[in-house]
Amino acid sequence: MNPVKKGNNVVIAENVTFGENVVIGHNVIIYEGVQIGDEVTIQDNVVIGKQPSRAKNSILPDIDQLPPTIIGSGCTIGTSSIIYANAEIGNDVFIADLATVRERVAIGERTIVGRGAAVENDCKIGMKCKLETNCYITAYSELGDYVFVAPGVVTTNDNYMARSKERLDKFKGITIKNGGRIGANSTILPGKVIEEDGAVGAGSVVTKDVGKEDLVVGSPAKPLRKVPENQLLRNQ
Hints:
Elements: E1 5-6, E2 11-12, E3 17-18, E4 23-24, E5 29-30, E6 35-36, E7 41-42, E8 47-50, E9 70-71, E10 76-77, E11 82-84, E12 88-89, E13 94-95, E14 100-101, E15 106-107, E16 112-113, E17 118-119, E18 124-125, E19 130-131, E20 136-137, E21 142-143, E22 148-149, E23 154-155, E24 175-176, E25 181-182, E26 187-188, E27 193-194, E28 199-200, E29 205-206, E30 214-217, E31 222-226
Parallel strand pairs: 1-4, 2-5, 3-6, 4-7, 5-8, 6-9, 7-10, 8-11, 9-12, 10-13, 11-14, 12-15, 13-16, 14-17, 15-18, 16-19, 17-20, 18-21, 19-22, 21-24, 22-25, 23-26, 24-27, 25-28, 26-29, 28-30
Antiparallel strand pairs: 30-31
C-alpha cells in the first residue's frame, strides 16, 4: 500500500483506513472508523465523519453514536466541506468546496455536489447526478440517477413551517426520479414528486407533482409542454 500524503495539522482518529494514493491537505480532521478508498483527494480544512450535534429544542431524537463514514475510490472532497458520520459516498464522486453532506446520506457514483450545496440528513442521491452551486436538498429526499438540480434550488419538507405538533410525523422530502431536472432558483414544496425526465423551469414554485416528461413553469408551476425528444435521458 502506498503511503498517505498528508499536509500540516492533520488529525486522524483511531481505526481510520485508507486505500492507495490518498492525498490529504492541511488542517483536515478525519473521525474514528472512517473508511477511505483508493485515489482519493481530500483538500484543506475538510471534516469527515463528524457526529451530528443536537440542539436543545430539536425535534430529532438524540443518538449516541452513528456508524463511520465510507468514502469510495476516486473521490475528491473540496476545501472546507463537511461530511457527517454514517454517510456513504460512492466511487468517483466530486464534492466541491464548502459543501455539506449530512448523516445517513448515500450518494451514488460519479455524482457532483457543487460548491456550497447542502444535502441534509437521510437523503439518497443516485449516480451521475449534478447538484449545482448553493442548492439545498432537504432531509428525507430521494433523487434517482442523472438528476440535475440547478444553482439556488430550494427543496422543503415541512408544510407546517415549524408550527404545531401535528407536523412531527408528517415530514416528507421530495422525490426526483431518473432524469428529472430543476431549473435555477426554483422551490419544491414538501412531498412533491418529479417523475422520470420531468423538468421544472427556472424560478418556478412546484406545488403539485410533475408528470413524466412534462415541462412545468411558473408560480405555481403548471405544465407548459412536453420535454423535447432530444433532451430526454434515453436519447442522450
